[in-house]
Each structure stands twice: as structure tokens, then as C-alpha cells.
Specification:
Blueprint (H helix, E strand, L loop, with lengths): L2 H18 L7 H20 L23 E7 L5 H9 L16 E7 L2 E7 L14 H8 L4 E7 L3 H14 L2 E3 L6 E5 L5 E5 L9 H10 L5 E5 L5 H9 L3 E3 L1 E6 L6 H7 L5 E3 L8 H11 L2 E6 L12 E4 L6 H8 L3 H4 E7 L8 E3 L9 E7 L5
Parallel strand pairs: 1-3, 1-4, 4-10, 5-9, 7-8, 10-11, 12-16
Antiparallel strand pairs: 2-3, 6-8, 12-13, 14-15, 14-16
Helix pairs in contact: 1-2, 2-6, 2-7, 6-7
């Protein structure tokens, strides 16, 4: 049996033991240890012998596609769900589409322009069950998906639930946490002092000092400080120790809605993070693009050279869950601007009056206009 086969056999045995174990307070510590062992073995299976520190030594690298534009989104899904047709509809890039499976065998990039932003769209080959273990070039597909700002899981409306769960599991196995935020846990390795475990919030999902120590023992972490600032699960605690998880927003794009009834569409409509489309008939593509814009947290900031009209054709695109500052805007233009920055004139929703003289910490809003004034060189 190959190394990968032996590791998978160990994982299967541990998962079978977990399934047999009843969940209660008495078995909580045992289940925590089993979860840590499974996570460690899966990390070894994906990244090679050495876990997360081994990098891509033994794992397959993603497709070599140069990142371009203001943001990158990836189309992930089973073969023959309409990803290639969707890429063509969004970007105009031709990706071979046919009625048989595995038409796309490599990553096809395209660029769509929306609200002045250039968004790179990657049509990834169809993934199959077992992709995270290397089946059907799955590791290459998911490695490339990790580099995206947003993942679109494209599903056939006729069979959504089965495909959705399989793809979610494959992404989870490869360390992608969909529609989640990193746990609010401070983790600092130390040279001495043992395990310092603190909670600022009551833990109700299975975490306590004994579980933390058992997991740390499994990962050979002997001295570290943990401060849990939110109620987390054992799996989230393991993610913190692994330290290589990617937290990526996901939209479920249900394609081929022209082939289902209104009643079936009403059932799908109850799902969160879902957009119904028909890429062949170009139904609801505008709604999809608006959702992409919102999920990528993009803002448009227009530049205004002194004595000229604002440049409304080429906005500067900033990513921010909150409101970006003038300093972030300047650094997006050029890293050297802040060395000569004096102040900025700002027009728009963030300004108290039009224009407002602002410093580098002023927070900008979508579609603000900014004029930068540099320091005058003294003789």
C-alpha cells in the first residue's frame, strides 16, 4: 500500500471510531483527540510528510495563472454543470463547452468589467468526489481556488443537494473554510511556561483546558498561550493550531433554472448565499454580478487631478469590509505617495462639506472623489 493509501486507511479507521463513539461529556476529551489526529493526518495527506510545514513539496501545485485585475473569482463545480458557458456569458472568453463531461481540462481565465472594476474569472476543471485526495486533478483545482477572493460553486439545479455537500466536503478537506471568519483566538508559541489557556467568553461547544491540552499534545505544542475571545468548536481550535486555513466567501450559483419548475425554484430560494441563473439563456446574470460585487467588498474611489475633472472611467478599486482610509487609497495608487502626502480634498458621502480637507486617516465611502495635495519642497 502506498504512503497516501496507508494514511487514508488510518483516517478511515479514526472516522469509524468517531462514528461509534457516543457524544457526551465523558467522551468529549476522546473525541477532541480523535479530531486532532484526523486533522493532522489529512494535512499530511494534502501537504506531504511534515504537514503544513512541508508546503507543496509533495502536493500538486495549482494551475499557473497570473493574477490580474482588481479581484479574482473561481468557478468550481462538478463536470458539465455549465461553468464554461457561464465564463463565456460573463467575460466573452471562449471556453470549450459540450454536452459531455470533462470538456475543460485546464484553467481558463477571463476578465469581466463591472462598475469600473476588472474582475478575473477562472473556469476550473470539474472536480469529482475525492478531489482533495488527488483524484481527477482535484488538488490543482482546489489549490487554485485557494488564491481566489470569491468562489462560485456552480451547481445543476436538477441535483443541487448531493453535489453541494460533496463539493463543500472537498473544499473543507483542503483547508478552505467557506463563508466563515477566522476564530477570534490569540495563539502565541512560547519557549517555556507550558500551556496557558484563557477564556474571555463562556465555551459551550466543547472547548476547555483539558481538550486544549490533549490537542496540543497531539500537535507536539508544549508551550503556548491561547486566549479564546469567542465561543468556538474543537474543529475551529484545531484550525487555529494548523494556521494554514483559507477563509473565503462562497456563492452557490444554481445554473440551468430553465429546466426546473417554479415550485422547485421556490424551494431553492430558501437557501442562503444562493443565486439562480441560466447561463445559456443569460437569465439573472446582472443579479449574479451585483452579488459578486457585494461579496468582494469592493469600493470605487475616483481620482481628481488638480484643475481637471474627476476620472470616472477608471476608478481605483479598494477592498475593505469597513471603510478604507485615504492612506490605503494612496498606497493602492503608489507606495511612494505617502512620503510626499500633505492632505487630500475629498468630495462625496464621507465628506461633511464639499470638498473637505482630510488627513491620511479619513475613512472613504463608495464613489468618493479624492484629490491628493503633496508637500511643497522647501528650498
Amino acid at each position: 500500500m502506498s504512503d497516501a493509501g496507508a494514511i487514508q486507511a488510518k483516517i478511515d479507521a479514526l472516522e469509524a471510531e468517531m462514528a461509534r463513539t457516543q457524544k457526551n461529556k465523558a467522551t468529549n476529551y476522546h473525541l477532541g483527540t480523535l479530531k486532532a489526529k484526523i486533522a493532522k493526518l489529512k494535512s499530511e495527506l494534502v501537504h506531504g510528510s511534515g504537514g503544513k510545514s512541508a508546503g507543496t513539496k509533495n502536493a500538486e501545485r495549482g494551475f499557473d495563472v497570473t493574477k490580474s485585475g482588481d479581484t479574482r473569482i473561481g468557478l468550481v463545480g462538478f463536470p458539465s454543470v455549465g461553468k464554461s458557458t457561464l465564463l463565456t456569458s460573463l467575460t466573452g472568453t471562449r471556453s470549450e463547452a459540450a454536452a459531455y463531461e470533462f470538456t475543460t481540462l485546464t484553467c481558463i481565465p477571463g476578465t469581466m468589467k463591472y462598475k469600473g472594476a476588472r474582475i478575473q474569472v477562472l473556469d476550473l476543471p470539474g472536480i469529482i468526489e475525492g478531489a482533495a485526495d488527488g483524484r481527477g486533478r482535484g488538488r490543482q483545482v482546489i489549490s487554485t481556488a485557494r488564491t481566489c477572493n470569491l468562489i462560485l460553486i456552480v451547481l445543476d439545479s436538477g441535483k443541487p443537494v448531493t453535489h453541494k455537500k460533496i463539493i463543500e466536503q472537498e473544499l473543507f478537506s483542503f483547508g478552505i473554510r467557506i463563508n466563515q471568519q477566522p476564530p477570534d483566538v490569540k495563539y502565541v508559541k512560547k519557549e517555556k511556561g507550558g500551556i496557558d489557556y484563557q477564556e474571555t467568553v463562556l465555551q459551550t461547544k466543547g472547548m476547555n483546558v483539558e481538550v486544549a491540552r490533549l490537542i496540543c499534545k497531539e500537535y507536539k505544542v508544549s508551550c503556548a498561550q491561547f486566549i479564546l475571545r469567542e465561543d468556538i468548536t474543537v474543529d475551529q481550535f484545531i484550525d487555529v493550531i494548523e494556521g494554514n486555513r483559507a477563509y473565503i466567501p462562497v456563492l452557490y450559483v444554481f445554473n440551468k433554472i430553465d429546466a426546473i419548475t417554479i415550485e422547485e425554484l421556490d424551494i431553492l430560494d430558501q437557501m442562503p448565499n444562493y443565486v439562480p441563473i441560466s447561463s445559456q439563456h443569460k437569465w439573472n446574470l446582472e443579479g449574479l454580478m451585483e452579488e459578486i460585487w457585494d461579496r468582494c467588498n469592493m469600493l470605487r474611489i475616483y481620482t481628481k487631478p488638480q484643475g481637471q475633472m474627476p476620472d470616472y472611467d477608471e476608478p481605483v478599486i479598494l477592498h475593505s469590509e469597513g471603510n478604507p482610509t485615504v492612506e490605503e487609497f494612496c498606497n493602492r495608487l503608489h507606495k511612494g505617495i505617502m512620503a510626499e502626502f500633505n492632505f487630500a480634498w475629498v468630495w462625496g458621502r464621507s465628506a461633511k462639506h464639499q470638498p473637505q480637507r482630510c488627513g491620511k486617516d479619513h475613512q472613504l465611502c463608495d464613489e468618493d472623489i479624492v484629490q491628493i495635495v503633496k508637500k511643497v519642497a522647501s528650498n
